[in-house]
Amino acid sequence: MMRLKHLFTLFLMLCSLTAAVAQVRNKMIMQRGRLVLIVDLRTSKTEIDSMLKAGGVTGQTADMLLKGNYAPAIKNGWSVKAKNNTIQLDRSLSDINKSADITPYLLSSTMFKSSGKPGYPAEVAFGVNYFGSRVSVHELPSGLTRFFVPGNLQAKRVFLSGNFNNWSTIKGLMNKTDSGWVADIRLEPGKYAYKFIINSNWTTDINNNLTEDDGLGNSNSIYYRYNYTFKLSGYQSVKKVSIYGTFNKWTELPMHPVNGIWVTSLYLHDGIYLYRFMVNGEWITDPTNNTTQVQNKLLSSVLLFGETVTFKLNGYTNAHKVYVAGGFNNWDPDMLPMAKTATGWVLPYTIAAGNYLYKFVVDGNWIIDPLNAHQITTDGKTNSFIAVRPNHTFTLKGYGGAHTVRLIGDFINWNEQGYTMEHKGDEWTINMRLKPGKYLYKYLIDGNWILDPGNKQWEQNQYGTGNSVLWIE
To answer: What is the pLDDT averaged over residues 51-62?
Structure first.
């Protein structure tokens, strides 16, 4: 009863909705001791499946709802009501309390874009922390991040909840010390939103001056885990050094001296940035960086922040000029010249994480990469494909006698040309960089569609042949 009362109090505080929020089509709300899911059948299947997963409606899929099959939900204790284009599912919180973790705010279809990973609520290029007189989040030598709540020693329990644990109300239990409460977690570089739950009361971090509207009239504390440090040596006698760049729209970012070196640390998303130092009112470029670019008649240093990819093209030693062009440089055919070697052409280039198409431009002629088996054809044009910092590998074992195996799914709008997979040993593989969410896919083997035999998750489609299901957390 205490936990049920606690959950009801949390939702009651946060369910005072504005007119704008009330117009959101898919909703998850708490009312009269029940968890209620309102599903608009006009939204995408992905959004509906995400709503069902977040609400803990196990075994139920969007396809089933669209066909009027509510059996899995009813079997698990959900009451189902269909009206016009909406379906309402509700269940007693006393039942859910036995097994499920309840997210402590109203969810909507727009919120499913938040991955619970770096980048909440959207990917950002840059971030710095802004603590008061007491820093309450520290990076430890072990690589863990320590969150600290000073005092509150009379509290029975304190939880740390944020987008890094899907705003859990039962995970994130903090450890009591003689001066407060601590929790150590492992975070990747990025932007994180969080709160503390002290004796069932939600509160922001009072020592953190960086907050952000949560979209429901309340605030979240914001913390950036850093991944880059700008450094400038040789100016020990100057009084002030700052850095400006495209990552923060050319606003001042102060630097501070450490052992004779001016430094400032920050979070940077993968990308290409221009920047300059201002030393006692004078602009200078980075003396340790030879890559520069003129913009608005000012010379700036160029930071390529991401993964270094080495493009190689064997042969064509009689060519005069060879370039590489793709989605990473807006297909500019004259921007990235390759260097000639004894056996061909080469270019190391830093690219942000993602999926990219590209080609080589040899004396004005566009060609695919002959060393790369991964290709895709769209509108009659074939391009080579590369994934930078991939987070999933599609693998199909066997089928050694096949001529072509293609990966096809909703991530390419079911383009039947698909991504060609590479055959190595007894496997066909391709690496992809996928955002968190649900994906549907199949393999096309010499014109024959099959489900992924290595993936037990699948759902029925409109053709009765099914699609494999992949969830990226």
So the answer is: 80
